[in-house]
UniProtKB/TrEMBL annotation:
InterPro entries given in the database record: DNA_repair-toleration, Leu-rich_rpt, Leu-rich_rpt_typical-subtyp, LRR_dom_sf, LRR_N_plant-typ, LRR_R13L4/SHOC2-like
One Pfam entry name: LRRNT_2
Ranges in a coiled coil: none
Record domain Disease resistance R13L4/SHOC-2-like LRR: where: 101-207
Residues making up the signal peptide according to the UniProt record: 1-24
One GO location term (cellular component): membrane
Leucine-rich repeat-containing N-terminal plant-type domain sequence ranges: 27-66
PANTHER family: DNA DAMAGE-REPAIR/TOLERATION PROTEIN DRT100 (PTHR48060), DNA-DAMAGE-REPAIR_TOLERATION PROTEIN DRT100-LIKE (PTHR48060:SF23)
Full protein name: Leucine-rich repeat-containing N-terminal plant-type domain-containing protein
Amino acid sequence: MEVTGVYLVALVLVAAVSPAVVNSCPPSDREALLAFKSALSEPYLGIFKTWTGTDCCTNWYGVSCDPTDSRVNDIILRGESEDKIFEKAGRSGYMTGSLSPSLCSLDRLTTLVVADWKGISGEIPACLTSLPHLRILDVIGNQITGKIPADIGKLEKLTVLNVGDNKITGEIPASIVNLRSLMHLDLSNNGITGVLPADLGKLTMMSRALLNRNQITGAIPISISGIYRLADLDLSMNRISGSIPAQLGSMPVLSTLNLDSNQLTGEIPASLLGNSGLNIVNLSRNSLDGYLPDVFTPRTYFSVLDLSFNKLKGAIPKSLTAARYIGHMDLSNNHLCGSIPMGFPFDHLEASSFTNNDCLCGSPLMRVC
C-alpha cells in the first residue's frame, strides 16, 4: 500500500508540473490566418469555407499545428493536387489576391506552401525573413512580382526555396549564400537579372539548383564545383557568358547539367564529358568551339548528350563507340567533319543528329564518304 501511495503522489506531482495540453490555436494565430485568407480569393474549390470556428488546428484545410501547444506550424495549400476536394471539383485550383504580411506573426511557422494557384500576385512579404523556424518556402506557379527579399539569408533553417514560375525581377540577393541548410533552390522562369553570386558554393547542402529561364548574366562561378551534394544544375536559357569551368567535371554526384541557350564560349572541358556520373548534359545553343574531347570509355552513360548549335570542329571521336550507353545525342549545326563512326550508338541515331555540319559523311547521313 505504501508503494501504491507513493506512486499516486508522484503522479499528482507530475501532473501538477506538466504543461497542460492546449486544445485550440491561440487567437493571435487564428487572426493571422484569417487576415491571410481575406487577402485571397478562391472561387472554385471552397477550401477557405473550412476555415471556420475558433480552433484553426482542427479541420482547417491545409493548416497543421504543433500538438503540444497548438501553435500553427504548417500552411500547405497546393493548386495542383490529388486531394479529394480537387477530384470532386474536377479541376485544378485557381486563386487571386496576394500574400498577406500577417503571415509574419506566425512565428512558429516551419512550412509555407502556397503553390500553383496561377493568379496570386503582389510581392513576397519581406517580413517572412524574420520567421526563425521556417524550413520550406514554396510559392511556385503564381504571378508574384517584385524581388526576392534582400534578407532571405536570415532564414538559417530554410531547406527549400521555391519561387519558380512567377514574375520575380531584380538580382539574386547576396545574402542567399547564408542559407547553409538549403537543399533545393528553384528560381526558374522569372525575370531575374544580374550575375550569380561568386560565393554560391557556400551552399554546400544544396542538391538541386534550378535557375533556368531568367535573364542572368556574367560567368558561371567556379565555387559551384565545391557543392559536393549537387546533383542537378540548370542554368539554361539565360545570358550567361564566359567559359564552362573545368571543375564542374569533377563534381562527384552531378548527374544533370543544363547550360543550353546561353552565350558560353571556349572549349568543352574534357573533364565534363569524361565524368562517368553525368547522365544528362545539354550544352546546345551556345558558341562553344574547339574539338570534341576524346574521353569516352565503357563507363560513359548518357541518357541525353546535346551539343548542337555550337561551333565545334574536327571529327567525331571514335571512342564514343566504347560508351556503355548513349540514348539521345545531337551534334547537329556545328562545323564537324569526317566520317561518322560505325556501330553503337550511331546505328540507332537519326540523320537529324548530324545535319548542318561542314563535311560529315556516312550513315545515317545520305552523304557518302
